[in-house]
């Protein structure tokens, strides 16, 4: 394998995926609409084919232009898009589809490939664009991959959990980093022991390459940090990376209600733990970055960016009311 085509390739997971393949001596072509700044515009090692992945002709053009050995599909959000891709790239050495941990349809700890049931997907859900059907559509994309593999296509899936790290345009982690950097006291819902499995973005990129090289057709591989941390431990890691201290203040439902808040107002909080078993991926030789290193790199890029996660901010005044009540207890 010497040439990788990354569908997407300029924003977050795709950007790190390009860097991962370049670091392992691949030639790389990115295929996208060109709607976002291309961080590889001046890199002679990276070719760019502009087009719409939902257009069959554009997808075929990208295939003919790149002649890839490996295809990593970062932006397939509907099953029909995966169906077209496995047809166009049916003869590549590896087609790797980025699915999601949200494809799992039952709450259990941990969620395992091939054991934990997947979400169903109705025809209407398959064509929907809302966040409510994201997991359903990703699960159906997995099923397309499985069927393609049965027909001889070397297609595989990678299922990340919540992804964080440099250049994360979702700003979910940025909200908490902004809190750690600017406030001595941080309100955390519950007892701080919430667990929502996260995956460092460089590890997701390396997983995509390892699966392309070592994975088996028709298989799906979970990816996430090998050591999980609670929400409170995540904030402690961030504080250490920023060389500061924070006081994490726990707030239950009654205390939050004083500020007009509830647990749903806090990003990266989940009542029931979400944990993926990553042993299958590790068996291919994949390793994850230490949490300390991952957070240090995340913090460094966060400080260089203008992202603050403001869209997730429940309101500091509301939090101050909660803190005031807790101080009287």
Automatic annotation (TrEMBL):
Residue ranges, compositional bias (Basic and acidic residues): 107-116
PANTHER family in UniProt: DTDP-D-GLUCOSE 4,6-DEHYDRATASE-RELATED
Source organism per UniProt: Halogranum rubrum
InterPro entries (UniProt xref): Epimerase_deHydtase, NAD(P)-bd_dom_sf
Alphabetical list of Pfam families matching this protein: Epimerase
Coiled-coil portions: none
Domain NAD-dependent epimerase/dehydratase, first and last residues per copy: 4-224
Annotated region described as Disordered, given as residue ranges: 107-139
Name of the featured protein: Nucleoside-diphosphate-sugar epimerase
Stated family: Belongs to the NAD(P)-dependent epimerase/dehydratase family.
């Amino acid at each position: 394998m010497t040439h990788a085509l990354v569908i997407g390739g300029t924003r977050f997971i795709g950007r790190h995926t390009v860097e991962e393949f370049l670091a392992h001596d691949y030639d790389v072509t990115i295929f996208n609409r060109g709607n976002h700044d291309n961080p590889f515009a001046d890199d002679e090692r990276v070719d760019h084919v502009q087009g719409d992945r939902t257009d069959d002709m554009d997808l075929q053009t990208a295939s003919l232009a790149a002649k890839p050995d490996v295809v990593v599909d970062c932006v397939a959000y509907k099953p029909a898009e995966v169906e077209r891709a496995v047809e166009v790239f049916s003869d590549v050495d590896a087609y790797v589809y980025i699915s999601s941990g949200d494809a799992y349809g039952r709450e259990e700890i941990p969620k395992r490939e091939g054991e934990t049931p997947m979400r169903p997907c109705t025809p209407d859900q398959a064509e929907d664009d809302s966040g409510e059907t994201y997991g359903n559509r990703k699960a159906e994309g997995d099923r397309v991959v499985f069927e393609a593999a049965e027909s001889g296509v070397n297609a595989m899936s990678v299922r990340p959990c919540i992804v964080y790290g440099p250049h994360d345009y979702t700003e979910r982690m940025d909200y908490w980093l902004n809190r750690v950097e600017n406030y001595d006291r941080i309100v955390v819902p519950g007892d701080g022991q919430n667990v929502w499995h996260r995956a460092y973005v460089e590890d997701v990129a390396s997983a995509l390459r390892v699966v392309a090289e070592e994975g088996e057709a028709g298989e799906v591989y979970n990816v996430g940090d090998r050591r999980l941390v609670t929400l409170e431990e995540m904030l402690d890691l961030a504080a250490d990376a920023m060389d500061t201290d924070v006081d994490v203040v726990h707030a239950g439902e009654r205390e939050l209600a004083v500020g007009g808040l509830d647990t749903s107002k806090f990003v990266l909080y989940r009542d029931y733990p979400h944990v993926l078993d990553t042993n299958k991926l590790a068996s291919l030789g994949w390793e994850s970055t230490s949490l300390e290193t991952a957070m240090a790199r995340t913090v460094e890029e966060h400080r260089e960016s203008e992202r603050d996660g403001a869209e997730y901010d429940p309101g500091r005044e509301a939090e101050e009311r909660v803190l005031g009540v807790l101080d009287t207890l």
